[in-house]
Specification:
Elements lengths: L9 H12 L2 H5 L1 H7 L6 H26 L3 H8 L4 H31 L9 H9 L14 H20 L1 H28 L4 H9 L9 H14 L6 H6 L9 H33 L11 H14 L3 H35 L3 H15 L8 H31 L3 H11 L6 H29 L13 H23 L5 H4 L14
Helix pairs in contact: 1-9, 1-13, 1-15, 3-13, 4-5, 4-11, 4-13, 4-18, 4-19, 5-6, 6-8, 6-15, 6-16, 6-17, 6-20, 7-14, 8-9, 8-15, 8-16, 9-13, 9-15, 10-13, 13-14, 14-15, 15-16, 17-19, 17-20
């Protein structure tokens, strides 16, 4: 008998999957990536990447989770016993991301309140690094926890743990049904206000104006591919875990298309809002848009406060903007935590509450490191290496092993087509068996080459100019450590429940799922 928790409705699952995919990167990464890589012309390689990588991998991971009905390690073990280590590798990547992702949400909570009186003043960058983060002078120096960061961090983990303790249906599903519509409403208000600002048309023109010359560059296509890979929460076990809670005859192909295009729709909305606001800022400063365009932490916590300073009723819209970051971040953090909670629960036969305490509890304790004076430096290095050399590499290995080494595409295709309205035809196998390995493999080769050459180039130096010792630890050490630890976890034998072969049996297709 299958006692695995299940989503209450199809909408609940789709909301949760979209909530995982729609995160902080949609708001502060996609607009700049598109702008830097051809503007409106970027949407051609972007669409290509969605159709040949994003949605095909979503279908793959939905199918694996739904068919084998377990956490990533258990699902990969049931697919082929030699694949369990891959599941643990992806689980540990999620664990590392959870430890620092929570801190960025804590910053957003603080800035939501700072918006009401524009506490950051005129020097928004100086406020962020000196007065709020109390950033250490030397990378690698830990210092003490910063109270202004640590307090909101406790709130973030309290909310996250409360939802996770409630379980899949009453916790994660219910939370996403509240958070995702609220996020959409809030961000729509922000976008409507942004496009009515003076100079908004200039910013939007910079965002949408196509530079057709750029799409002839292979780097632009690789950038599109890489962004889709990170954007959709694929390659680090989230979608496998979420799909394992689907009823046994649920449609997976259609759900993958819905999730993929919903995520892209939000990214487009974010791009419009961000560049309309940047156009306003450029107009106020009488400078070109390229002088104010940026991405990442600097865009959200330094550039946007400057925009809010100049906006009519900026306090209100500033609070809405940072609140949208909080909602987007929480839905993603919950999904990331569920990955290792499910894995620990399956492998060690723990109750859900114990798995939450051990898994998310440990992640919350480690996250305190990122609330210290030196936290931003640690966050920057760990995020770079775990994303560039963790998620992307794990996804490449996943596709190659399943498609070429263990040749599992045919049985997975047959299962997906048996329960889905849209068929995963030959295009699906070509995308995963040929296009994805080639493009992602090239991207990884180029990335490794760049980082290795940096060690011998005095002009370029290390990533962000950090000392080699700091690059090696925590950066390289953690990226390599999750692989080694994943192999170690896979050495422990599964209990009898994991070895039964009744996980994929089922009756008629559940209505509405």
């Amino acid at each position: 008998m299958d006692n695995r928790p299940q989503w209450g409705t199809r909408a609940g699952f789709v909301m949760a999957a979209i909530g995982s995919a729609v995160g902080l990167g949609n708001i502060w990464r996609f607009p700049y990536v598109a702008y830097e890589n051809g503007g409106g012309a970027f949407f051609l390689p972007y669409l290509f990447a969605i159709l040949t990588a994003g949605i095909p991998i979503l279908i793959l991971e939905f199918t694996i989770g739904q068919k084998f009905r377990g956490s990533a390690p258990l699902s990969f073990f049931r697919l082929n016993k030699k694949l369990e280590w891959l599941g643990w590798w992806q689980v540990l990547i999620s664990f590392v991301i959870a430890t620092y992702y929570a801190v960025i949400i804590a910053w957003a909570i603080s800035y939501t309140f700072f918006s009401f009186n524009k506490a950051w003043g005129e020097d928004t960058g100086g406020f962020l690094f000196s007065k709020y983060l109390h950033l250490a002078e030397t990378p690698g120096e830990v210092g003490a926890p910063v109270l202004g960061v640590f307090g909101p961090l406790v709130v973030v983990w309290a909310i996250t743990l409360f939802i996770l303790f409630k379980g899949v249906k009453k916790g994660i599903e219910k939370a996403n049904k509240i958070f995702i519509p609220t996020l959409l409403v809030i961000f729509t208000i922000i976008v409507i206000r942004a496009v009515t600002l003076e100079g908004a048309s200039t910013g939007l023109n910079s965002f949408f104006q196509p530079n057709w010359d750029k799409i002839m560059s292979g780097e632009v296509w690789v950038a599109a591919y890489g962004h889709i890979f990170f954007s959709l929460s694929i390659g680090f076990a989230i979608m496998i875990t979420y799909a394992s809670y689907l009823p046994k005859k649920s449609d997976v192909v259609n759900n993958a298309f819905i999730t993929g295009f919903a995520n892209s729709g939000f990214e487009l909305l974010a791009g419009i809002g961000v560049f309309a606001a940047l156009g306003f800022m450029a107009a106020q400063a009488n400078v070109p848009v390229e002088e104010v365009a940026s991405a990442g932490v600097g865009l959200a916590f330094a550039v946007f406060p400057q925009i809010i300073n100049q906006m009519p009723f900026g306090e209100f819209f500033g609070a809405l903007f940072f609140l949208s970051l909080v909602f987007a971040g929480l839905t993603s953090l919950i999904s990331i935590c569920e990955v290792f909670i499910a894995a620990v629960q399956d492998k060690f036969n723990l109750t859900r509450n114990k798995a939450v305490i051990y898994g998310a509890g440990l992640a919350s304790l480690i996250s305190i490191l990122y609330s210290t004076n030196g936290g931003l430096y640690f966050l920057d290095v760990v995020d770079y290496f775990i994303n560039q050399f963790g998620i992307a590499v794990a996804g490449l290995v996943e596709v190659i092993l399943i498609a070429w080494v263990f040749k599992q595409m045919n049985p997975l295709q047959a299962h997906a087509n048996a329960i889905s309205d849209i068929r995963a035809g030959g295009w699906w196998k070509i995308c995963l068996g040929v296009i994805t390995p080639v493009v992602l493999g090239y991207m990884m080769f180029d990335l490794f080459k760049q980082n290795i050459l940096q060690q011998f180039d005095n002009a370029t130096g290390n990533y962000e100019g950090y000392a080699t010792s700091f690059i090696l630890f925590p950066g390289v050490f953690i990226a390599a450590g999750v692989i080694i630890l994943g192999i170690v976890f896979s050495l422990k034998k599964w209990g009898s429940a994991a070895l039964n072969d009744n996980y994929s049996s089922g009756s008629d297709k559940e209505v509405g799922l």
